[in-house]
Write a structure and sequence with these properties.
mainly alpha
């Protein structure tokens, strides 16, 4: 049940950063480079979130 929101946590950063990159491209006339940068950054944030959620803090090896 803790993975229900994981789809949104993956999709939202990609969509938001892609949109921000698209708007910046239109403003600065640099299409499509900032949109692609935003999409790649959104995917990196999504993968970080995924690995953090799935990994569940297995780092350290402490007894907790």
């Amino acid at each position: 049940m803790s993975f229900v929101g994981l789809g949104f946590e993956i999709a939202v950063p990609v969509a938001v950063l892609g949109f921000v990159g698209h708007r910046a491209d239109r403003w600065l006339a640099t299409e499509p480079w900032l949109m692609l940068l935003g999409l790649m950054l959104g995917m990196a944030v999504s993968f970080y979130t995924l690995f953090r959620r799935v990994g569940g803090g297995t780092r350290g090896g402490g007894d907790s």
